[in-house]
Specification:
heterodimer; A: alpha+beta; Butyryl-CoA Dehydrogenase, subunit A, domain 2; six-stranded mixed sheet; three-stranded antiparallel sheet; 24 helices; about 10% strand; B: alpha+beta; Butyryl-CoA Dehydrogenase, subunit A, domain 3; 4 domains; 23 helices; about 55% helix; globular; lipid metabolism (chain B); ACOX_C_alpha1 (chain B)
């Protein structure tokens, strides 16, 4: 039965939860398909995650491999295909807890970077799982800065082979998933040398393990890189190459080819390839970043409606912790952010689909903008959502610290997203570079991409709000965000120019402005997110209370951003001290309003108990019972040898025998 | 790994420092003699083969527990062998043995024994203390329940007195009343001090402490009526058997209630304790430990991140030149140096609280409790302020190490998971901030009614002078000189005054609108927390600044002054809105502050490695491949990875 404290929260919902779920899914039909996939996966015991918190790294890895193999069978059985509508829900249903994901990256890199001949040779082998692929780019010494990679591939004309080497320890491939134990092949990125000349980084297909007995191939040293904060189910690996020879045909050669005589030929435009890299950053947002935040909000908010602590009114029952303003101030902005980023993700997906169509028509005009947006938003969303999950974790007090809450593993997993696919600070600086360039162009009257036209139109002024209610107007706060973004971009641009004019080299000037540049890039992305949220709300149907509650969340997201960064808005007096008090008042009022719908708002994310895998967050709210029963299953409750070996002598005062 | 020479980058960094790190280490330790003694104790552990073991990252939770309990038993014996008895020296020894991690006897040594000392009658001490001291009894302290943590009055466990048998009957009447979390309870202890609501003669007399045997001496089996076990896997604390305890009509003799203060007589008559302020003393002491722990944990993370940033080279700053150390990037300095300054600030705050506690604990023993409320309020806030900041700072250090920070070989994941519960235990941080706020509002109210307040809140006295003019407190002009720490203290003071006043006024406005005090308090609590934070921030800046005057060595004082300025200015930069809104600083000044922060980054850069060397963490204690003193990072990452358990079993089986 449902805990009455949760049941009562659901009775007073101001909107239709089912309708909101459909909106999030992109239509009721998609909700139906998603639920069918989730049901099929969760009803199959092989995919159960119930014991995962008790498992060792080895057990987690083995389970993930078992699931990956079983999934092939399942897909066949269910008639799901890689191009079908069900496919994208499988990963969500498995909560990512499955091996061989790099196999997919291996295949995609061959499809994108390989010649037709290479595709014809390798893709069928990979599809039929006659080999297991990985993707070896990052090295011990180099990550985001690809030009710095040190692995070498030297062309040997005599044998028509490339000779691959790891010339020093920092050149060892380090981190690639599925490579520590599983992969038989991998795409190695290495500096290409022909006749002693370096041609830069190129991809090569390298077999690393025998297809017969899985032993390492000659010249290969590979293994697992050891325990990490999470991803226990993945065998992230290292790879050391010593005079490994591969045929000339193993260099992926859609864009660059080495002819038998050693001639290096560049062909076609790499821009489409560049675009593919860019899209990866956007494609990870939904499953790897938004889902964890939504799950964390679900767990923390449901638990806060069940947990009672201390009294708000003398003589009454202890209050739900969700009724404390400080608790609302922790959790509700995270909930609003989850919705804000969901909508900006929709916007970005659409933009990238459009970009893809343009690029196929060989129109590359959108590329710089898409690149800047994908970099900036990847950084801003991963950073914000990671912080949000941590806030949810800490908002659950002691019980949040138990693995059985589900929160620690959500946190340790999402935080990796701040680093992979481009370290966040570096990505923000790339966005900043684009913004500065556009700003200069706009000031010179040249055309700029659509997302930054406001840089040209910006005018000085003051915030016109006169009361706290004015701050619930999207025009008022969107304008304020725009103002701050323009101010930060333009002041950094002038600072850069001043430094250069004072005689500094360009790169020195750039490094001296990087802290400001990062702030400007963040402000830009924050502005676009607020603007997009407000525009999305505007377009929603007014029925079923959806638009009203989304408007509240949009207001909360915007005002929370001002409240937590007052300095930026007060700086040039755009918002006055008195107006800032209005912002605060409006913001705090909103917390109490959204509080009433908090549980229905997380219910709308529609996570099953199996997928939350949390004693605190289950739908029925039977928190304590579940926690108690689950803990008793912990393997640590089996009698351990520690008692006989150490405790007994200790208690019996025979310490000296130890 | 074989003996390797020091990484050239680190060697160069150390050669370029403008001060002697040992001198700063002495200041952190409280004098050269303390440093010498600390290192002596450290050597006792490091040179003892009994305390060596393989990297804990490769062990399962059960194995880590076993390793910890093995070391704990030896530790107790060897402490006595070496004649170490001073509490601080015991703390050092313990933390070297366990490398800064928790251990199963923590609660026995840190709570069970001290509670016996302070709350047991002489008769009870005779019965329990020596057996506990000799480890025939291992005890824990069972306070927290599933349903209640910081809010102690809500605890549900009952102890009902039965005069006919002169026993207490202990019960866990609901699921939520099951004791949950106590360290050492899951597998190690055979006794627990249980906090329960005392019922006698049909009346509830509130929370009291009882000594409860839970496991059979000899067999270690749970006693009839006791259900006890481990609460399962956690974020960290792998070596600790945090446990649960459920009691069903479990009877203990009347003499097992700790009766130094409150008492239950044989017929069931209840005798009240004299004062409840006494328990403040223990809380102040434990919270002061957490402030010190915030400083140490953040220092460890900074040591790792800064050394690694001096060793790691990446990308290019100048075209055609070799890849620079990542510590040369402004964004990296901006992440790490303010945290380094914070670690120093918190060290001095921790030392201040400890000294103050020791100073006034003499008064407490003589019955003078006048200074306790302020110290209690202050430490509540500082516990929250420092642990929140350190918690976030450790994560920033990890992030600053990029991908390798995510590997457990970096050591930072472990520092984080070990440290982060201190935001919750010994008083949940938000609740702590609100306790401080209660004191601030009370002080404000006193000032408003014409009384003077003393101590750290004395700046509120200025408000009464302001009241003569119909002016906002903050409208008074503070001439802030951004190069002068003393002047920045004034700016922080003005900010705290402004936010305390604003919160107090908002609270009053809510009270005027609504019926209940609690409701008004709740509706102002976000403001109140902000006020407390501003107050704590002021205290930290003030104490750091005050410390500078005590430093005699010019070179050391210069570098500490840079750090102090960075700490204060970075705080202003991050909270610019507060200073702008209150009119304490103008926009032009904020721009100068931002600029000066960046200049200070460049000033501190040459001393960064020496400043973390001064923390003087031994490699074994640091537990980090990235943070090794010799900087040989990559070679040792490879060595470390080869030991991973995943490389011991073959995948061929699965294949």
């Amino acid at each position: 039965s449902v805990n009455p404290d949760l049941a009562s929260e659901r009775q007073t919902a101001s909107f239709s939860v089912e309708k909101l779920t459909a909106l999030l899914d992109g239509g009721a039909e998609k909700t139906r398909i998603r639920r069918a996939v989730v049901k099929a996966i969760e009803s199959d015991p092989v995919f159960s995650r119930e014991n995962q918190y008790f498992q060792t790294q080895n057990e987690r890895y083995e389970a993930a491999v078992r699931k990956a193999v079983h999934l092939q069978k399942k897909m066949h059985e269910m008639g799901w295909t890689e191009n079908g509508p069900e496919y994208k829900y499988i990963y969500r249903a498995l909560s990512g807890d499955v091996a061989f994901q790099l196999h997919r990256v291996f295949m995609r890199s061959i499809s994108v970077l390989g010649s037709d001949k290479q595709i014809a040779k390798w893709i069928p082998l990979a599809t039929q799982h006659q080999l297991i692929g990985s993707y070896a780019q990052t090295e011990l010494g180099h990550g985001t800065y690809l030009q710095g990679l040190e692995t070498t591939a030297v062309f040997d004309i005599a044998t028509q082979e490339f000779i691959l080497n790891t010339p020093k320890i920092s050149a060892m491939k380090w981190w690639p998933g599925d490579m520590g134990r599983s992969a038989t092949h991998t795409v190695v990125f290495a500096q290409l040398y022909i006749h002693g000349k370096c041609y830069g980084i190129h991809p090569f297909i390298v077999q690393i393990r025998s297809l017969q007995d899985h032993s390492l191939c000659p010249g290969i040293t590979a293994g697992d890189i050891g325990p990490k904060m999470n991803f226990e189910h993945v065998d992230n690996g290292y790879l050391l190459l010593k005079n490994v020879r591969i045929p000339r045909e193993n260099m992926l050669s859609k864009f660059c080819e080495v002819r038998p005589d050693g001639t290096y030929v560049r062909q076609g435009s790499q821009k489409i390839n560049y675009f593919t890299m860019t899209t990866v950053r956007i494609s990870l947002i939904s499953d790897e970043v938004l889902t964890p935040l939504m799950k964390a909000c679900t767990i923390a908010i449901r638990y806060s409606a069940v947990r009672r602590q201390s009294k708000l009114k003398p003589g009454e029952q202890e209050a739900k912790i969700l009724d404390y303003q400080t608790q609302q101030e922790k959790l509700l902005p995270q909930l609003a952010a989850a919705y804000a980023f969901h909508f900006i993700n929709d916007y970005l997906q659409e933009l990238f689909d459009r970009g893809y169509r343009e690029i196929q028509r060989t129109n590359f005009d959108m590329l710089p903008e898409l690149h800047a947006l994908s970099s900036g938003f990847k950084a801003v969303i991963t950073h914000h959502c990671t912080a949000g999950v941590e806030i949810c974790l800490r908002a659950c007090g002691g019980h949040g610290y138990s693995l059985l809450s589900g929160l620690p593993s959500l946190y340790t997993k999402i935080l990796a997203s701040c680093i992979y696919e481009g370290e966040n600070t570096i990505l923000l600086l790339q966005t900043a570079r684009f913004l500065i360039k556009c700003f200069m162009a706009a000031r010179a009257g040249q055309p700029v991409p659509p997302s930054v036209t406001f840089l040209a139109a910006a005018k000085p002024g003051k915030c016109p709000a006169k009361s706290k209610l004015d701050f619930l107007s999207p025009d008022i706060y969107t304008e304020a965000y725009q103002h701050v973004a323009v101010r930060l971009i333009s002041s950094t641009a002038s600072k850069l120019q001043d430094l250069i004019q004072s005689g500094l080299k360009k790169y020195d000037a750039w490094n001296q402005c990087t802290v400001q540049l990062v702030q400007a890039a963040k402000a830009h992305c924050h502005y676009i997110t607020v603007k997009n949220f407000a525009e999305t709300v505007e377009k929603l149907e007014t029925k079923a209370g959806i638009q009203r509650i989304m408007k509240h969340l949009c207001d909360l997201f915007a005002l929370h951003g001002i409240f937590s960064n007052t300095g930026a808005f007060l700086h040039d007096g755009y918002i006055s001290a008195a107006q800032m008090d209005m912002v605060t008042a409006s913001y705090l009022d909103l917390l109490a309003v959204i509080r009433k719908d908090a549980v229905p708002l997380v219910d709308a994310f529609d996570f099953t108990d199996e997928s939350l895998n949390s004693a605190l967050g289950s739908y029925d709210g039977q928190v304590y019972q579940r926690l108690y029963e689950w803990a008793q299953k912990s393997p640590t409750n089996e009698m351990s040898p520690a008692y006989e070996k150490y405790l007994k002598p200790l208690l019996h005062n025979t310490l000296s025998k130890l | 790994a074989a003996a390797m020479s020091m990484n050239v980058d680190l060697r160069r960094e150390r050669a370029a420092a403008t001060f002697q790190p040992e001198l700063l280490t002495h200041i952190l330790d409280g004098g050269p003699e303390r440093t010498r003694r600390r290192k002596e104790i450290e050597a006792l552990v490091l040179n003892d083969p009994d305390f060596q073991h393989e990297d804990l990252n490769f062990l399962s939770r059960s194995q880590r527990y076993e390793q910890a309990i093995r070391k704990s038993s030896l530790m107790v014996m060897k402490l006595r062998e070496h004649g170490i008895a001073d509490p601080e020296e015991i703390y050092w020894f313990k933390s070297f043995v366990h490398r800064g991690r928790p251990e199963p006897l923590d609660l026995h040594l840190g709570m069970f024994l001290p509670t016996l000392l302070t709350q047991a009658t002489p008769e009870q001490q005779d019965r329990f203390f020596m057996p506990a001291w000799n480890l025939e009894i291992i005890g824990t302290y069972a306070q927290t329940e599933m349903g209640h943590g910081t809010h102690l009055r809500g605890l549900e466990t009952t102890a009902t007195y039965d005069p006919s048998t002169q026993e207490f009957i202990l019960n866990s009447p609901t699921v939520t009343s099951i004791k949950w979390w106590p360290g050492g309870l899951g597998k190690t202890s055979n006794h627990a001090i249980v906090l329960a609501q005392l019922y006698t003669q049909g009346q509830c007399k509130g929370l009291h402490a009882f000594i409860v045997p839970i496991r059979q001496l000899g067999t270690h089996e749970p006693l009839p009526g006791i259900t006890v076990g481990d609460i399962g896997p956690k974020f960290g604390y792998d070596e600790m058997d945090n446990g649960y305890l459920k009691m069903d009509n479990f009877r203990i003799p009347r003499e097992n209630m700790l009766m130094k203060y409150a008492q239950v007589e044989p017929d069931g008559t209840y005798v009240k304790p004299l004062s409840d302020k006494l328990t403040y003393g223990t809380m102040v002491f434990i919270r002061s430990l957490i402030v010190g722990d915030s400083a140490r944990s953040l220092s460890r993370a900074c040591t790792i991140a800064i050394r690694y940033s001096a060793v790691r080279h990446q990308s290019e700053l100048k075209p055609g030149e070799p890849e620079p150390q990542i510590l040369d990037y402004q964004t990296q300095q901006y992440k790490l140096f303010p945290l380094l300054a914070t670690a120093y600030a918190f060290h001095f705050v921790g030392a201040y609280i400890k000294d103050t506690y020791h100073r006034i604990s003499g008064d407490i023993n003589e019955g003078d409790l006048s200074e306790l409320p302020e110290l209690h309020a202050l430490t509540a806030g500082l516990k929250a302020f420092t642990s929140w900041t350190a918690n976030a700072g450790i994560e920033e250090c990890r992030m600053a190490c990029g991908g390798h920070g995510y590997s457990r070989c970096s050591g930072i994941p472990d520092i984080y998971v070990t440290f982060t519960p201190s935001c919750t235990y010994e008083g949940e941080n938000t609740v702590m901030m609100l306790q401080t706020a209660r004191f601030l509002v009370k002080s404000y109210t006193q000032v408003s009614s014409g009384q003077q307040v003393t101590g750290m809140v004395s700046y509120l006295n200025d408000l009464s002078r302001q009241r003569i003019q119909p002016q906002h407190v903050a409208a008074r002009t503070v001439t802030v000189r951004i190069n002068d720490p003393g002047s920045l203290v004034e700016a922080y003071k003005a900010r705290a005054a402004r936010l305390v006043e604003a919160a107090a006024k908002n609270l009053q406005a809510e009270l005027n609108h609504r019926k209940s005090k609690e409701d008004a308090w709740n509706r102002t609590s976000v403001d109140l927390v902000r006020a407390s934070e501003a107050h704590c921030h002021y205290v930290v800046v003030k104490l750091f600044t005050a410390k500078l005057a005590e430093v005699s060595n010019t070179a050391v004082r210069a570098v500490l002054t840079d750090l102090c300025l960075l700490y204060a200015l970075f705080g202003i930069s991050k909270n610019a809105g507060d200073f702008l809104q209150a009119g304490i600083l103008t926009s032009a000044q904020i721009t100068q502050v931002n600029q000066h922060v960046k200049e200070l980054l460049a000033v501190i850069r040459p001393n960064a490695v020496a400043l973390v060397d001064s923390f003087d963490f031994h490699d074994v204690h640091l537990g980090s491949v990235l943070g090794r003193y010799d900087g040989n990072v990559y070679e040792n990452m490879f060595e470390w990875a080869k030991k991973s358990p995943l490389n011991k079993t073959q995948a061929r089986k699965l294949y």
